[in-house]
Structure formats: structure tokens, C-alpha cells
Amino acid sequence: MAQTRQPRFHLAFPVDDLARARAFYGDLLGCAEGRSSDTWVDFDFLGHQIVAHLAPEECAAAARNDVDGHDVPVRHFGLILDWTAWEDLAARLTQASTTFVIEPYVRFAGQPGEQATMFLLDPAGNALEFKAFRDEADIFAK
């Protein structure tokens, strides 16, 4: 069977409170809600399906690694946005007084792979990274 469009990813992750997950992913990030039950909620993460599963025992602080002098959560997920969408999201999150793990900033300025990035935690402690590349052709640049 031939694939005619870019594949979408599906990610399931633990949360400790579905109401707080709905407020964060739905209200703050603007993800439309799909199907749900008493123990999980689907969200449209810019065309990708993410599912918050109620599993408070699975929510724990993640290990971290040093990346460019920043303490990056090892376990994280996120999206690569276009530059303008990244700037808009950074402004919206800052306006909402979001606490960032890593404040919005630009890495590799003027070099191949120049990218804007920011890290934040959802209410259950899951780490998210949102990034944008100055030139999308450099996503895998070395």
C-alpha cells in the first residue's frame, strides 16, 4: 500500500489529572479534543494524535542531560513549527505566565541547523519541546 501523505504520529502518555490535561492541551495549547472516556482523552496535536491516559503512578520527574548548557529533559515530545508559528506560540505562552523548563531562545544562530526552541512541562510533568528551523532543509543538518 502506497503512502500518499506525510504519516502522522500517535503518542500516548501518562497524566495525573484529566481536567488539568484538558486545560493545558485544549485551552492553553489550542489542541482540539477528540474521543475520550473517564480514563483518557485524545487531542489533535497539529494533525497528530496524542492521548492523555490517566496514570498518576507513571508521572515522575524525568532524567535530564546537558545540551548547550541547558538541562534538557531526556523524555520529551513536541512539534517542529514554522518560524512564525513558533514565535506566536512563545508569545502566547509567555503572556500566559508559563513556567518554562528552558525559556524560548535560538540555537546555532547563523549556522546550519539554526533553530528556535523552548521546553515546558504539562501539569503532569511531561516535558514538551517546541522548535522551529530557520530553514527546514536543515532539520537534519550536522
From TrEMBL:
Protein name in UniProt: Glyoxalase
Organism this protein belongs to: Pyruvatibacter mobilis
Domain VOC: 7-133
Pfam families: Glyoxalase
